[in-house]
Amino acid sequence: MADDLKDNYAGAFDGALGFGKRPALLIVDVVVAYLTPGSPLCDPAFQTALESNERLVAAARAVGMPVIFTNVVYQPGGADGGLFYAKVPALKAFQRGSEMGAFPDTLQPAEADTIVSKQYASAFFGTSLASTLSAQRIDTLLITGFSTSGCVRASALDALQHGFVPFVVADACGDRHPAPHQANLFDLQAKYAEVVSEARALDLIGAARSAG
Fold this sequence. Notes:
By secondary structure, the chain is of the alpha/beta class. It has one domain: Isochorismatase-like (Rossmann fold), CATH 3.40.50.850.
């Protein structure tokens, strides 16, 4: 089946995007709601992805690459979340002041990092992210986070549509089930992004040091 799928897409969806000269690391919604047993968003798969994010952040900071964190914050009652908040009951975990919306102890933003708070799936929708990236002349994003089929996918698609080359780091993304995780990585690679391993991402970060 996998070979049939690749054959079906061959010739139509097998282009490639090049890695740019001014990359940044975008970490989408890596917060404790996905890592705390008993949370409706938690799954063990997220822990492995968290560890990958920790390594990527350390590497990015070592070369001076900009690091951007996103989180989700709603006013009480979620009116600022609109239909997205109404559709997904688990988003109640992100009302302002909830501990579930905090960054994990092992992956805290540093003073030099940027934090973008959002209410919808994409890190770009209704936020200043595109302007922030443009002001820094960023041309490429290494994208990680939670969840692959939700906010990571939406953010990668919007990155492309805003003119930033999206490189999605598969090992640093997580989802509640392998099926949507793999299906969305496949579709992102085919149509909207470059999907790379953590090892490849670390090589690209290292190359950014050399280029700098």
